[in-house]
Amino acid sequence: DAMVIQNPRYQVTQFGKPVTLSCSQTLNHNVMYWYQQKSSQAPKLLFHYYDKDFNNEADTPDNFQSRRPNTSFCFLDIRSPGLGDAAMYLCATSRDGGPNEKLFFGSGTQLSVL
Amino acid sequence: RKEVEQDPGPFNVPEGATVAFNCTYSNSASQSFFWYRQDCRKEPKLLMSVYSSGNEDGRFTAQLNRASQYISLLIRDSKLSDSATYLCVVKADDKIIFGKGTRLHILP
Predict the structure, then answer these.
(1) Is A85's pLDDT higher than 80?
(2) Numbered residues of chain B with Cβ closer than 8 Å to any chain A Cβ
(3) Quick one: residue B55, left, alpha or beta (phi over 0 = left, psi -120 to 50 = alpha)?
(4) In which element (H, E) is residue B22 found?
(5) Which of A9, B30, B61, B77 has the maximum number of C-beta atoms within 10 A of its C-beta?
(6) CA of B91, closest CA in chain A: separation in Å?
(7) How many CA atoms lie within 13 A of A28 on its CB side?
């Protein structure tokens, strides 16, 4: 049974048209992460939530925003997608973010920007 | 020096062979280490954690060398299904750093 669910699996948007990616989890984990992964690159952390506390990475562009309305759901909003934002977006969770905790990933959303 | 470095490969290895690859990390305060496996266009999946004393899970053996700041993954009796990208993950405090991955192709 999927524990971290991302929708949609594939998303196509137009240059400059806002898009929202969603992630839900059934694990009741405190921490939720959003990663961006481009081809042959490492996943790059955009931001994470510890419960309701939002933590933005210093180099995450302002174009990327996130919302976590409750424990189960987290959204990634791209306000004005550019061609360079085409990537796989991965949502992950961990129970409390402790050093020995593993990450549980969703299946990702592959974003294309036309 | 990059925080986490891996040889990108690809490693082309015949089925049944043993293959090993390393991952180096720059932060000596790193606390925990993992190997993840990622198939093409899929999400990373945990393969194994890496413990200080080294650990084994079936055909897979992971080792940590804190003095030289690297971790290794050894795959014995490789199978076609082992073809994937192997990502090294290092945690230091609340920071999680992924390597770019090593691509492994098992050849029939």
Answers:
(1) yes
(2) 4, 8, 31-32, 34, 41-46, 49, 87, 89, 91, 93-94, 96-101
(3) beta
(4) strand B19-25
(5) B30
(6) 6
(7) 0
What was the pLDDT predicted at B94? 76
DSSP string across B38-97? E-TTS--EEEEEE-TT-EEETTEEEEEETTTTEEEEEE-S--GGG-EEEEEEEEETTEEE
What dihedral angle (degrees, nearest 10) is formed by the CA atoms of A55, B24, B98, B85? Answer: 180
CA distances from B39 to A78, A95, B101 (A): 26, 24, 11
Class of residue A114 by CB neighbours under 10 A (exposed 0-12, middle 13-18, buried 19+): exposed
Beta carbons of B4 and A42 less than 8 Å apart: yes
pLDDT at B1: 67
Q: Which two tokens stand for residue A61?
A: 């562009």
The residue in chain B having the minimum alpha-carbon distance to the alpha carbon of residue A40 is B100
Q: Does A10 touch chain B (CB under 8 A)?
A: no
- Chain A residues whose CB is inside 8 A of the B43 CB are 90, 105-108
Cβ-nearest to B32 among A40, A88, A100: A100
In the block, residue with structure tokens 């060398």: B65
